[in-house]
Amino acid sequence: MSQDNRLEKTNRINLLFAFYERLLTEKQQTFLKYYFHDDFSLGEIAAEFEISRQAVYEHIKRAEQTLENYEAKLELLQRHESRMQSIRELEALSFDDKLPEETRRTLGVLSEKLQALE
Amino acid sequence: MSQDNRLEKTNRINLLFAFYERLLTEKQQTFLKYYFHDDFSLGEIAAEFEISRQAVYEHIKRAEQTLENYEAKLELLQRHESRMQSIRELEALSFDDKLPEETRRTLGVLSEKLQALE
After folding, report:
1. pLDDT tens across A19-68, in order?
2. CB under 8 Å to A32, separation ≥6 — which residues?
3. DSSP H helix total and E strand total for chain B
4. Mutation site, B23, B69, B86, B101, interface A, largest A CB count within 10 A
5. Are B114 and A117 a contacting pair at CB < 8 A?
6. How far apart are CA B58 and CA B109, in angstroms?
7. ipTM attached to this prediction
8. Tell me, which fold does domain A3-74 have in CATH?
């Protein structure tokens, strides 16, 4: 995998992890965190947990697949990204000085509330 | 259970079902639909599938529990309801005739886009 593809994949897994973390087993959560979030190598994780490099690799592969399966069913990441586009437009509107001060304040509050739910 | 509580519970299960349907087994999906959505009795479902009334009851109990477990972990229904409050405020603002026509149109489009993602 190229450096760019690897980075893109790491980003995607980290995002999916944020949405579906609570649906993974404790072991899956731990290994994904070490590998994608903290950037440990397979060998380092294997040493840390005293299991084979191959076993770590398989745990991580399976956890990635589980995340992608949940996303295929629930599309939480995809919906999040679509919502964020509208929320950013709303936020931009709250800085539009052609609008009444009160409206801008209301739009600011609404965009913050929506953002906080993401 | 009182009539009101029963209605409230039916509404809640129907809502949870809308969010988590794809995470249930086919059998769970079928029984929940018959019972909560189409208002069949346990006896009617038992007759339809040629299993005992008790077996239907247990499938439905377990499916309800599964839905509540997913909600406890992902809170999709709760987040949906919080977002809907802000979306409705946004929609109301799009009808505010003290605002410029163009702004109202933009707010209308944004509230529709956000609503469509719910």
Report:
1. 999 999 999 999 999 999 899 999 999 999 999 999 999 999 999 999 99
2. A13, A17, A24, A60, A63, A64
3. 6, 0
4. B86
5. no
6. 45
7. 0.86
8. Arc Repressor Mutant, subunit A (1.10.10)
